[in-house]
Amino acid sequence: MEHYQTIALYGFVGAFLFGAIGSRTQFCTMGAVSDWVNMGSLTRMRVWFLATGIAIFGAQSLQHFGLVDLSQSIYLTSNFTWLGHLLGGFLFGIGMTLGSGCGQRTLVRVGGGNLKSLVVLLVMAISAYMTLRGLFALLRLQINDPSTIDLEQSGLTTQGIPELTSHFLGLSPSIATAIVAILIGGGMIVWALRDREVRTNFDNMLAGIGIGLIIVFAWFTTGYLGFDDFDPLPTEAYSFIAPVGNALTYLMTFTGSTINFGISVVLGVLAGSFAYSIVTGNFRIESFSDKSDLINHLMGGLLMGFGGVMSLGCTIGQGISGLSTLAIGSLITLISIIAGCAFALKMQYYLYDDQGWLHALKSTLADIKPGK
Amino acid sequence: MTEANQELDARNLNCPLPILKAKKAISSMASGEVLKIVATDPGAVKDFESFANQTGNELLESTESGNEFHFLLKKA
User: Fold this and answer.
1) Per-residue pLDDT tens for A144-171?
2) Is residue B1 part of a domain?
3) How many domains are there within chain B?
């Protein structure tokens, strides 16, 4: 087996587990925001942040012991596309609300027989590829090019929060990394485990710890096992938007294409979820209820594809993988996604009043307090 | 068996729509009245449990028949 195929295989195996865990525990980042906004429950948000906290400690440990160089990943680039993170994240957040879940949730649902999510997946893949290389790429560059900040001009090599901290506060890089990792990663884990519902529920612990560890395994796979001077492969962990676009292209141009880590991860999540739903007897075909349901899902796929590429990742790509590198862009994207999702949830709620968009927008803006 | 004062059809809708619709429907009901919800999304089972826990509205019933889930929510 060729080197790149071995790496893709490891990606597939981890993703297969990810898909099975996602199917069993119904791990859902949109659901996390929905529970918070609609019911005032933070349990699912804590599960998500538990995964992120574990990924932060794992990835930073791999970096600390010299096994993986995270600065080689896209998240830590010195080209800081702040507007792309802000705007792309917000649009992605709206998209995942309309599309019944983020990229990974869409894949898990497709594996379980949901045809609505299959439509979301196809539109998302096309939209993502159009934003990478097609028509939407022009718009992406129009937004990103003028607003990009080149951090190298300020003497920085990455957009890592530890490097920014050490640069502005004069701390040594290793101390700054330890402080930031403990504050963000440790803070997330402690916050998550303070909730009894997280600590005592097997599925919640499985989702939080399992997914966090799978992301760490992904960094180890691409950054350590994948490292080869003569055959360099990208250092990356799981992400579900650009890779979904690449996976569709790969399947369409199969005889002239080669597999890579991202594509095999997409296929792995689909396979894992499918296998789990078949074994447990939960596979069921689901379809659209009406015209507006179809329109919402089409819009959801479109916005997730565009927003996810523009912000360089989704709730997993930036929210867990990206944040585990402690990049400032990942933190901005995560906050923007949550804001976009909360905004869309409130809009949907007020649109049920049947008094039009303007009324819904006014009510949403007047009602930014969650859990109300 | 408890009689429902109002029924909500959330068949073929996925999270978050069943919860959003239920939240909207129950907001216009009087205390003690019962809302029946019919859904097909398996995720709705957990969602309505959490919804009841968090909002104080009582989940009187949560049953599965065929490919459908039936819930009875009593407004607090």
Assistant:
1) 999 999 999 999 999 999 999 999 898 9
2) no
3) 1
